[in-house]
């Protein structure tokens, strides 16, 4: 199985109106293959920038990112990305949305493409909506389509950028359960960026807290909860303790950022 990520000395500087703006500074991070890592931090901590660098959508100003020892220099099929908007093609059915990336893999026989699409439709609970158009779907269903499409090309790493921020609480929890089931069933390496500490703890095996301005790793917390957790774990003393600890960390580093301005 593939999917080991390594970030060494990664920094990102943007050109601003008043001069250079450092979004990320000296990020050193190792993500073993098959791990589910959540990244949290206040506004300005560079969470989405970090995920964009892993996706290969931007090049770092300094440092190196590697996937299985190979430097990341651009986007690739070994990484699938899902963003908050859950962008889907409105003119394509659910089935054809999920299979879009596979149409570019000409070497893959049509029957195998159809089989793979059918598997991910079932995995994400969309089989009964295979022939529906996106306008007929709820927000949560569109996010399921986006996740299934990202997974259908069978990337080594799944990247989730605030994927459930626009959903209601019930739908968000349904999607959290879906991500954990997909992770358990596929063994993918998963990185999720979220502002929701509770979500980060429920999903992650680790939670990395980023400090702000510039974004840097402030804390790396192991989530000592069962891998087969369900929603009831959110009411346990251990979960509540972890949530308080990480919320305090996020708040502390945000306050330091505000005080320094």
UniProtKB/TrEMBL annotation:
It comes from the Bacteria. SMART domains: AAA. The keyword Nucleotide-binding applies. Residues 5-237 form the ABC transporter domain. CDD domains: ABC_NrtD_SsuB_transporters (cd03293). GO terms for molecular function: ATP binding. Signal peptide: none annotated. PROSITE patterns: ABC_TRANSPORTER_1 (PS00211), ABC_TRANSPORTER_2 (PS50893). Transmembrane segments: none annotated. It holds the Pfam family ABC_tran. Keywords: ATP-binding, Nucleotide-binding, Transport. PANTHER family: ALIPHATIC SULFONATES IMPORT ATP-BINDING PROTEIN SSUB (PTHR42788:SF13), TAURINE IMPORT ATP-BINDING PROTEIN-RELATED (PTHR42788). This is ABC transporter ATP-binding protein. It comes from Luedemannella flava. The lineage of its organism: Bacteria, Bacillati, Actinomycetota, Actinomycetes, Micromonosporales.
């Amino acid at each position: 199985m593939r999917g080991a990520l390594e970030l060494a000395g990664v920094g990102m500087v943007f050109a601003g109106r008043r001069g250079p703006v450092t979004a990320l500074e000296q990020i050193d991070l190792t993500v073993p293959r098959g791990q589910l890592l959540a990244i949290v931090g206040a506004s300005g901590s560079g969470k989405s920038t970090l995920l964009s660098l892993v996706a290969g959508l931007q090049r770092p100003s300094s440092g190196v990112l590697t996937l299985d020892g190979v430097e990341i220099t651009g986007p690739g099929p070994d990484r699938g990305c899902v963003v908050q908007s859950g962008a889907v093609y409105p003119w394509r059915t659910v089935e054809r949305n999920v299979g879009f990336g596979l149409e570019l893999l000409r070497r893959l026989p049509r029957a195998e493409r159809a089989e793979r699409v059918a598997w991910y439709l079932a995995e994400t609970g969309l089989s009964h909506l295979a022939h529906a158009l996106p306008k007929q779907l709820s927000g949560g269903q569109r996010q399921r389509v986006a996740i299934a499409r990202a997974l259908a090309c069978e990337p080594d790493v799944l990247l989730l950028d605030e994927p459930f921020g626009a959903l209601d609480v019930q739908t968000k929890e349904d999607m959290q359960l879906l991500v954990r089931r997909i992770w358990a069933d596929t063994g993918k390496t998963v990185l999720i960026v979220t502002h929701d500490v509770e979500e980060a703890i429920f999903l992650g095996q680790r939670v990395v807290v980023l400090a702000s301005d510039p974004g840097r790793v402030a804390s790396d917390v192991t989530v000592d909860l069962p891998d087969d957790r369900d929603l009831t774990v959110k009411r346990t003393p251990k979960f509540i303790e972890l949530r308080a600890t990480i919320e305090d960390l996020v708040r502390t580093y945000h306050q330091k950022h505000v005080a320094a301005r």
